[in-house]
Amino acid sequence: MMTKSQYLYATGRIRSLETKLLSTSDMERMIDAKDATMAFKVFNDLSYADELADIEKPEEYQAVLNHDLQQVKDVLKQITPDSRVMDLLFSRYDYHNIKLFLKARILEKDLSKYESNLGNIDPERLRDYIIKDTKTAIPAEIEEVIREAKKEFDKKDVGGYIIDSYIDGKYFARLKELAEKLNNSFTTSLVRNWIDIANVKLFLRAKRLELELEKFQSYFIAGGNILASSLVNYYGKDLKEAVTICSRGFEDAAVKEAIKDYAEGGELWKMEKAFENYEIKFIQQAKYIAYGPEIVLAYYLAKKNAVRNVRLIFTGKLNDLPSGEIKERVREIY
User: Fold this and answer.
1) Does one domain contain both 232 and 148?
2) Predicted confidence (pLDDT) at residue 285 exceeds the cutoff of 70
3) Is the entire prediction scored with pTM above 0.90?
4) C-alpha 119, offset from chain centre
5) Is position 123 within any domain?
6) What is the CATH number of the domain that holds 104?
7) SS3 1
8) Domain for residue 322, yes or no?
9) Which residues make Cβ contacts (< 8 Å) with residue 78, sequence separation at least 6?
């Protein structure tokens, strides 16, 4: 049985890496730069980007970010004593690719440019298995998900969001299984939060599109703080009651306000920002834990958040957004 003390080495390494995470002042320097080129120069001055300082075009920032996350994954793989923690963090990219390749199969489109290399399964093998029905070695639980999805969707006219919701259900079932095996309260709460966020997004999107409940109710995910059955029961009620049930799983006032705003016709990015800030606030408790899987999980999520902020900054700079608008969009830091 894995014990927290087995994370002593990993914790020491990560505490050192945490000092190199993107800071508020780093972000402000990038945002306040006069243009994308100057912002990129600031970015390349940062310690965690120096291995790619020879890339000069700001349009190539995505290559830097992808490389950076891959390096983080490689380091965590070396120092994390329990592979289930890595599975919990990086299986999201496998399930992203599964959704992508299922859509490519059904829509007969090449969507490979959107695939991720951060998963535990080589995307080329996954692509061939899903699109070409090539027999190749993939984990049994993933093989079962794909087989059931093909049976569910082949030769059917379904929207992309239906495929997304179906695979999300399988993904979260896997996360719940991993969290149960890890038997760690931080991990369990983290997964429950993710389930709540996924369910609320599905609920509110369907509400705004005025979809019939029967078309999507089976895609609500059990295991969150908000009962899936409650979401089903409240779907037909008025907007105020719908917002109340969606807010029930969150203590954060900013999240409650963002849910209300989106339900009333507001922009999706504002709600997503509130959810992502909520996650950062949650994982900050790992700073006060001596050692354990919490430190690994929190560090990767903090790093991913930093990468997201850099992406938001460069997207804004390349599209000539005012600095004030970019500052409004970036997330809180770890």
Assistant:
1) no
2) yes
3) yes
4) 12
5) yes
6) 1.20.1690
7) coil
8) yes
9) none
CB 324 within 8 Å of CB 13:
no
In terms of residue numbers, what domain contains 205?
Answer: 191-272
Q: What's the confidence (pLDDT) of residue 52?
A: 53
How many other CB atoms are there within 10 angstroms of residue 107's CB atom? 12
Number of structural domains found in the chain: 3
DSSP state of 331: P
Alpha-carbon distance of 123 to 113, in angstroms, equals 11
Quick one: tokens of 79?
A: 């120092």
- On whether both 128 and 77 belong to a single domain, the answer is no
* CB 169 within 8 Å of CB 228: no
Q: DSSP assignment of 255-318, as one string?
A: HHHHHHHHHTT--HHHHHHHHHHHHHHHHGGGGG-SSSHHHHHHHHHHHHHHHHHHHHHHHHHH
pLDDT in tens, 250-279: 999 999 999 999 999 999 999 999 999 999
For residues 92 and 179, membership in a common domain is answered with yes
Contacts of 185 by beta carbon, 8 Å cutoff, 6+ apart: none
> Do 7 and 28 fall within a single domain?
yes
CA distance 258 to 250: 11
Q: Give the C-alpha distances (Å, rounded to integers) separating 207 from 65, 222, 251, 257.
A: 35, 19, 23, 17
Whether 283 is covered by a domain: the verdict is no
Q: Report in angstroms the alpha-carbon separations of 146 from 105, 139, 156, 163, 326.
A: 12, 11, 16, 11, 39
The token duo for 189 is 């709460």
245 in a structural domain: yes
Q: What band does 45 get if pLDDT is binned at 50, 70 and 90?
A: confident
Total Cβ atoms within 10 A of residue 304: 18
* Domain's final residue, options 183, 207, 242: 183
CA–CA–CA angle 100, 101, 104 (5° rounding)? 95
Q: Assess whether 176 and 212 both reside in one domain.
A: no
pLDDT for position 129 = 95
- What amino acid is encoded at 34 in this protein? K
